[in-house]
Amino acid sequence: MHVQLDPRAPRVVNPYPTNPEQCLFFYARDPIEVFNYSKRQEITSPHSVIVGPQVARVNLRMGYNQLTIKVGFQPGGLFRLFRTPMWQLLDQTVDSYDLVGREINQVNEQLREINDYAQMIVLVETYLLSKVAAHKIDAHAVDKVARLMLQSHSRQYSLDWLADQACLSPRQFERRFLERIGMSPKLFMRVVRFAQAYRLKDRQPELDWQDIVHQCGYYDQMHLIKDFKLFAAVTPTILLKEEAASPLRLFAGSPF
């Protein structure tokens, strides 16, 4: 994503509620400022960061020349690549250098010199594929079950059934899940349902909230509002207003 804003205009905050994705971000032009709701503090992000499992909302204040490359990982992928227990990264934005070392700085420096988007993607993919080849760590059954839990129909499955699919006892399943995904299976399913709810409303604004409650498997609207206050720190209506004012929405036609 490349967004260039008028430097005479005030910098606008972009809300990022909880979601189940774990990512590696590269900021190849201006730095970005991150306000973490769990820590109640704002930091200037390094040029490359690893974002682990997220429960608390964050706000991102972009620079005027914001070029971001995002690498999203399948469940368990970040653990397999960096061998760091994911619970240690809960609600953390970590400088990639701290986990990878100076080699990531070389990628950052090259990205700042490149102006072609396709070349940037090739550079990042080449780096990551070299890491994958060096580790050669197979996926665990927990990773496959976590991918299943990302699907809407997974709400019909009990945690005992999911543990059985991973060939683990419920206690073993929870321990491995914390290590590889970074939160308990129950919390992960709750995060997945919340993310499905607000993305569904974003894609289909004509739906009313009762439709969202029904389609996403909430018991009632009060339970949905409770999750919004926990994971987005605001009510559903306020979150939609904040996202509508985001530069990422205003500049949706920018090159991706």
List the helices and strands and how they pair.
Layout lengths: L1 E3 L8 E4 L5 E6 L5 E4 L4 E4 L3 E4 L6 E4 L3 E9 L3 H6 L10 E3 H5 L2 H11 L3 H19 L5 H9 L9 H7 L4 H11 L4 H19 L5 H7 L5 H11 L4 H9 L2 H4 L6
Give a structural overview.
GO terms for molecular function: DNA-binding transcription factor activity; sequence-specific DNA binding. Keywords: DNA-binding, Transcription, Transcription regulation. Residues 143-242 form the HTH araC/xylS-type domain. It holds the Pfam family HTH_18. This is AraC family transcriptional regulator. The protein has 2 domains: 2-135, Sandwich (Jelly Rolls), CATH 2.60.120; 141-245, Arc Repressor Mutant, subunit A, CATH 1.10.10. 30% of the residues are buried. Residues 250-256 have low confidence and may be disordered. The protein has helices at residues 77-82, 96-100, 103-113, 117-135, 141-149, 159-165, 170-180, 185-203, 209-215, 221-231, 236-244, 247-250; strands at residues 2-4, 13-16, 22-27, 33-36, 41-44, 48-51, 58-61, 65-73, 93-95. Helices cover 46% and strands 16% of the residues. The chain is α+β, with helices and mostly antiparallel strands. Strand 4 (33-36) and strand 5 (41-44) form a beta hairpin. The strands form 2 sheets. It has a 5-stranded antiparallel beta sheet with strand order 1-8-3-6-9. The N and C termini lie close together (5 Å).
